[in-house]
Each structure stands twice: as structure tokens, then as C-alpha cells.
Design brief:
alpha/beta; six-stranded mixed beta sheet
Length: 178
């Protein structure tokens, strides 16, 4: 039986959650795995809610909808409050503690906090907390190889932002090493 990982990235629009999901599924594609990527926006793009469901699997995927995530990556308080109850028992919750002052408790999931926004800003990588959290996701779940995620960064950063490739790799390594 193959491994399937259902992840929900959630936060405000403009935090790069859809890009974080795209990095993860691109790494899955590079490894020739089955993937889905399903974005969801609130009515306002920037500042409204945004989330992205991804599935990475060794088996064919029945539905791109993630109603019971194995992992929640949350970048703001409303997302934590809204989705923490949906994570499956035994699941994982990764929270950007810079933007989530009240971390709830659940006895049946592992909750990891990481001040990703602060870490990115301190390192001169403002706006890359999403990639720091993707690195942390890889560290905690081993959903792909490190080389695959680095290749996904190369593929996913648009040509007009080629200068951001190294910054994205740096942010990813910060999360991986945290």
C-alpha cells in the first residue's frame, strides 16, 4: 500500500499559501507521484482567507478535496481556529507562531509552532514564511526528497522572478533545519 499525504495550507490571501502548495505538488510530480492541488479563496484576494488542499500519493487519487487533512499548515489565527478540529487524529499541525498568538491544544495531534514570518524577516527574506513552512513540512513528513523540492523551486519561481530562486532555497533550508 502506498503512502498518501493530505495537506491543507491556510492563511490570508497574499501569504503565498497557494505557492507553497504548488511547490509541494511539483516536488511530488518530479518524483513521479500522483498529486492534486486545489486552491480556495475568500471573496477578497489579498487579506481575505486563502487555502489550498494538496494530496501527494503513490496511488491514484479519488478526490482533490481534503476534508480530513493529515497535516494543517496554518499562517494565521482564523485558519487555526477554523481548521484545527478537522485534522485527523494522529495528524500534524504546523503553525506560524509569529501570526498566531493563541495556539489551541489537542491531545490527539502533534502541534509544532515555528515563528516563520519572523525568521524570514530576520534573514532578509520578507514574504517567504510560506517557503520556510514548506521546509518544515518536509522535515516533519519527508513527503519528498530535498533535491526534489529544490528542483520544484526552480520550476515554480516564474522567470521574471528568477532572482528569487536563491532566496526561496534559503527560506526552504531555514524551515528544513529548524
Amino acid at each position: 500500500m502506498g503512502r498518501t499525504l493530505n495537506v491543507l495550507f491556510a492563511g490570508f490571501g497574499g501569504q503565498g499559501l497557494l505557492f507553497a502548495g504548488k511547490l509541494a505538488v511539483t516536488a511530488g510530480l518530479i518524483e513521479d507521484r500522483e498529486v492534486t492541488w486545489l486552491p480556495s479563496y475568500g471573496p477578497e484576494m489579498r487579506g481575505g482567507t486563502a487555502n489550498c488542499s494538496i494530496v501527494i500519493s503513490d496511488e491514484p487519487i479519488g478526490s482533490p478535496l481534503v476534508v480530513a487533512p493529515d497535516v494543517l499548515v496554518a499562517m494565521n489565527q482564523p485558519s487555526v481556529d477554523k481548521f484545527i478540529g478537522e485534522v485527523v487524529p494522529g495528524g500534524l499541525v504546523i503553525i506560524d507562531s509569529t501570526l498566531v498568538p493563541n495556539v489551541p491544544t489537542r491531545d490527539d495531534v502533534t502541534i509544532i509552532t515555528l515563528p516563520a514570518t519572523q525568521m524570514a524577516e530576520d534573514a532578509g527574506l520578507k514574504g517567504l514564511a510560506n517557503v520556510v513552512l514548506t521546509g518544515k513540512l518536509l522535515k516533519e513528513t519527508s513527503f519528498c526528497g530535498i533535491e526534489s523540492l529544490e528542483a520544484a523551486i526552480l520550476k515554480s519561481v516564474p522567470a521574471r522572478k528568477a532572482a528569487m530562486v536563491e532566496a526561496n532555497k534559503q527560506a526552504f533550508m531555514m524551515g528544513l533545519e529548524s
